UniProtKB/TrEMBL annotation:
Annotated GO MF terms: hydrolase activity
Pfam families: DLH
Transmembrane segments: none
Protein name: Carboxymethylenebutenolidase homolog
GO CC annotation, single: cytosol
Signal sequence range: 1-18
UniProt keyword terms in alphabetical order: Cytoplasm, Hydrolase, Signal
Keyword check for ATP-binding: no
The keyword Cytoplasm is assigned to this record: yes
Organism whose genome encodes this protein: Adineta ricciae
Length: 280
């Protein structure tokens, strides 16, 4: 009897020791200062084979949310890239009453500020890694809307984006899309099809619209990957695993096709030069 207890005790102890906490599975990054912003950076920026960095937009709960940080840590570790998340709200978190909330969001989260911040971060990333560094954007909730805007109005900086349970994603916000986006929605988000997908199919060029993807996690609630993630809930954990897999697959697919386009254009250019040379 006593021996059995002891065995259980030892077994229990060793399982405790070997399985680390969910928030401690992946290596952590550090907060650095970029102009007037704090930026969390994690992962190896020197992976020249990929030559890729990812900017993450936090949700309305801001920069200090463990679930959102862990998303960055995991993506950096599994995909072997540098992932950075800026404190777009500059130390603010959301106020608790609705009228204040709307005014606050217009102040801290407006596009003129965010687009300036994005230029700053992109410049810093290319200066500290390589000038040819390609950059993708990923955002949650409020940040999911910023992804649509960045892939519309800052398509010179970013080659693709992933919008995860994006908020306020209207038809208007996607009608100037210039880069392919993976849209991920929860079951209680406004449906992505038909409205969003139809507008994109009608207005974006066929290469962009053909590469956009739409995924809905019907059994999940808004926020399930960032501040609303519940790591004690097995279904939620399974959905997050699936999101990570989708994100990596999508980024690889778009990376491949955008680099083949580049080499294709280079080839055409070379051919043209060659023809030009012959004619002279
Ligand atoms: C992980 O969570 C535990 C329990 O909430 C906390 O004590 C610990 O500091 C966290 N670790 C990190 C690296 O955030
Ligand atoms: C985030 O955490 C840091 C360090 O713990 C703290 O100084 C800062 O005030 C926090 N910011 C917010 C918005 O909670
Ligand atoms: C946008 O944000 C900046 C910086 O927070 C602020 O100065 C500006 O007034 C905001 N614009 C609007 C329209 O709220
Ligand atoms: C993006 O650019 C388009 C066209 O220049 C403009 O109509 C639209 O208002 C811009 N969107 C934002 C969010 O600034
Ligand atoms: C989709 O478009 C229809 C027709 O314009 C509109 O009635 C409906 O509210 C829209 N749905 C969403 C989720 O935006
Ligand atoms: C998280 O999920 C667990 C298991 O389903 C549940 O017992 C708990 O209430 C959930 N926590 C929150 C904050 O929803």
């Amino acid at each position: 009897m006593h021996v059995l207890c002891l065995v259980f005790l030892i077994l229990g102890f060793s399982t405790c020791q070997s399985s680390s906490l969910w928030n401690e599975t992946y290596p952590k990054g550090e907060v650095v200062r970029v102009e007037d912003m704090n930026v969390y950076t994690v992962g190896n920026k020197a992976n020249s084979a990929k030559d890729l960095s990812i900017i993450v937009f936090h949700d309305i709960y801001g920069f200090n949310i463990t679930q959102t940080r862990v998303f960055c840590d995991r993506l950096a570790a599994e995909y072997e890239v540098q992932v950075v998340m800026a404190d777009f709200y500059r130390g603010n978190t959301l106020p608790t009453t609705v009228p204040h909330f709307i005014a606050w969001l217009a102040q801290v989260g407006n596009w003129s500020q965010v687009s300036t911040d994005l230029r700053t971060i992109a410049t810093w990333l290319r200066k500290t890694s390589s000038p040819s560094r390609r950059i993708a954007v990923i955002g949650f909730c409020w940040g999911g809307l910023q992804v649509a805007r960045a892939c519309s109005n800052l398509s010179d900086l970013f080659f693709t984006g992933v919008s995860i349970h994006g908020a306020w994603l209207t038809e208007d916000e996607v009608k100037n899309l210039q880069r392919p986006v993976l849209f991920i929605a929860a079951g209680d988000d406004p449906p992505l099809r038909p409205n969003i997908s139809t507008v994109i199919e009608q207005s974006a060029n066929s290469q962009v619209s053909g590469q956009c993807q739409y995924e809905t996690y019907a059994n999940m609630k808004h926020g399930f990957v960032s501040a609303g993630a519940n790591y004690s809930n097995l279904e939620n954990v399974a959905a997050i695993n699936q999101v990570h897999e989708s994100v990596r697959t999508f980024l690889s697919k778009i990376s491949k096709s955008s680099s083949s386009i580049t080499s294709y254009s280079a080839c055409i250019l070379l051919c043209l030069l060659f023809v030009f040379d012959l004619c002279q």
